[in-house]
Write a structure and sequence with these properties.
The protein has about 500 residues and is of the alpha/beta class. It has 3 domains: about 210 residues, P-loop containing nucleotide triphosphate hydrolases (Rossmann fold), CATH 3.40.50.300; about 210 residues, Nucleotidyltransferase, domain 5 (2-Layer Sandwich), CATH 3.30.420.240; about 35 residues, no CATH class. Helix content is about 35%, strand content about 20%. It contains 16 helices and 20 strands. It has an 8-stranded mixed sheet with strand order 3-4-5-2-6-7-1-8, with helices on both faces. Helix 2 crosses helix 3 and helix 10 crosses helix 11. The longest helix has 21 residues. The protein is elongated, with a radius of gyration of 29 Å. It starts with a helix and ends in a 7-residue tail after the last helix.
């Protein structure tokens, strides 16, 4: 008897799961059993995120007796035609004749097992306070809400419950400066799970709707980026090509990029100089590597130290032959550790040509020089006392050269975004805009650490050889055309050709 009962239970479970799988999108299927305190679903129009949220609310209310599930939006008047209508439609389609009762006054959905779905607007705090013993929450169109609204709802989930308490957050992105990005996407927390989705993830979307969204790719790139692809929006005119950047971001998030994440571990001399370095992989490491250093290949590094209006120390490693991103170093704080990691990174990449921004602090350049790093960027400065020119370490960003190095970077990446592998860098490109004076800068509340360090790295590339060092015993062979060009070249041109093509034995 027990075996028969178990078999029947198993049969029902398999049937339930197969039905759920058949009627749900793959991106959301694992989330039916997700128990994080915050389940944050960001996506474009037509991604199916709201349909999933409604379905999960129903599934939990049906399977967990006694739920008091609160569904809310900023404005109460919008609930009837949105969340309430969607829940009723899901019930009619997937749970007919289940004994579930929906009423308009009061607006509720009641289940035979005692569970109930309640509705409330965040604009009516007094009415919301009258709803007691909430077990879980769904906030629809959360971009309309204030952070304080979300925090208050979180505090409401304090009563004892036999089930996990969860707040589902669904929204279309508005601006990269929105509190939702800062709260859930710019930092990680054990009690938060974030999921991005687009219309491409929704296999139930009518073909004509998807085709309509695709048309915006050319006619309105901003709308397409935000409302179709679910990227964070920008308020000003972007300096970098938004549509191309957005497309590159989508490629990266599709899992096309292979990288290693970690940090350098090392010993230190009495002067603090790192030695005996090795790369240790770690999910939360500050160094991300896409291409390991190759023997003989020239690399350049541009670094931006955390200063005014910035919250991160950043550095980019570029293959100087192509300009391709090989690695990125990003740290939120710790100037001394940043200097040590940067030193290890530069040594790892064949003693890379290293240009460290020197506007807000000279510490990093000073210690790198003290440690004997020989390939530091050097500039000439005037001694205010003697009037003589002297050499100073580091890259100084001025009002004059800032626009120049940014313009150089825009030109370099135009049509070559496949050379950029770091999603954070591309995200900063989407929030790097023209202000009222047409000056390029980060949108209010956003940052440009990665942009500026990449611009510095790109700018100093011509200051280093762009060809790989040829091993001493390796033979370089020139074609007949190359020899002809050599014979007709001037002395300076011959030096350039040797740099470009390698020495076939002329200087041996």
């Amino acid at each position: 008897m027990k075996a028969e009962a178990l078999s029947e239970l198993q049969r029902r479970a398999v049937l339930w799961y197969s039905t759920l799988r058949r009627t749900s999108n793959d991106v959301f299927l694992p989330l039916f059993h997700d128990s994080h305190r915050w389940l944050v679903l960001m996506g474009g129009a037509g991604s199916g995120k709201s349909n999933f949220a409604a379905r999960k609310v129903i599934e939990r209310c049906m399977g967990e007796p006694g739920h008091r599930y609160l569904v809310c939006r900023k404005v109460a008047a919008t609930l009837r035609e949105s969340c309430y209508a969607l829940l009723c439609a899901e019930l009619e389609q997937y749970y007919p004749a289940s004994g579930i009762r929906a009423t308009v006054s009061p607006m509720q959905i009641r289940f035979p097992n005692g569970s109930v779905i309640l509705f409330g607007g965040l604009d009516d705090s007094e009415k919301l306070k009258s709803i007691h013993r909430i077990t879980s929450v769904w906030i629809e169109e959360a971009s309309e809400c204030d952070e304080a609204d979300a925090d208050q709802l979180n505090l409401r989930l304090r009563d004892e419950s036999p089930y996990y308490r969860q707040i589902i957050v669904t929204f279309n992105p508005i601006s990269a400066t929105h509190w939702l990005k800062k709260k859930f996407f710019d930092r990680t927390a054990d009690n938060v799970r974030t999921v991005r989705s687009t219309y491409r993830d929704n296999r139930f979307l009518p073909a004509e709707y998807g085709e309509e969204l695709e048309r915006y790719r050319d006619t309105d790139p901003y709308y397409y980026a935000v409302y179709a692809l679910g990227e964070w929006g920008v308020l000003g005119q972007t300096v970098f090509p938004a549509a191309a950047v957005t497309e590159r971001l989508a490629q990266i998030r599709a899992g096309a990029e292979v990288s290693r994440c970690g940090l350098y571990v090392y010993e230190q001399s009495a002067a603090g100089k790192p030695f005996g370095r090795r790369f240790a992989e770690a999910e939360d490491g500050c160094v991300t590597v896409w291409a390991a250093a190759e023997p003989g290949v020239p690399y350049v590094i541009g670094a931006d130290t955390a200063g005014e209006g910035s919250d991160a120390f950043c550095a980019h490693v570029l293959d100087n032959r192509t300009g391709e991103q090989a690695a990125v170093l990003r740290m939120v704080n710790g100037e001394a550790e940043f200097a040590a990691q940067l030193y290890c990174l530069a040594c790892e990449y064949n003693d890379a040509y290293l240009a460290v921004e020197a506007n807000f602090s000279t510490y990093v350049n000073t210690v790198l020089a003290q440690w004997g790093y020989a390939n530091l960027h050097v500039r000439e400065t005037e001694d205010t006392y003697t009037g003589r020119l002297r050499k100073s370490y580091g890259f100084l960003t001025t009002a004059k050269n800032r626009n120049l190095i940014i313009a150089e970077l825009v030109t370099a990446v135009r049509g070559s975004l496949e050379l950029i592998h770091d999603a954070r860098t591309l995200e900063e490109m989407l929030t790097f805009v023209r202000n009222e004076d047409y000056r390029p800068e980060a949108e209010a509340g956003a940052h440009d650490d990665l942009i500026m360090s990449l611009a510095i790295a790109n700018h100093v590339r011509p200051m280093q050889r762009r060809v790989a060092d040829v091993p001493e015993r390796a033979k370089v062979r020139w074609t007949a055309d190359m020899w002809e060009d050599w014979r007709s070249a001037s002395a300076d041109e011959k030096e350039y050709l040797l740099t470009r093509w390698g020495d076939p034995g002329i200087r041996r």
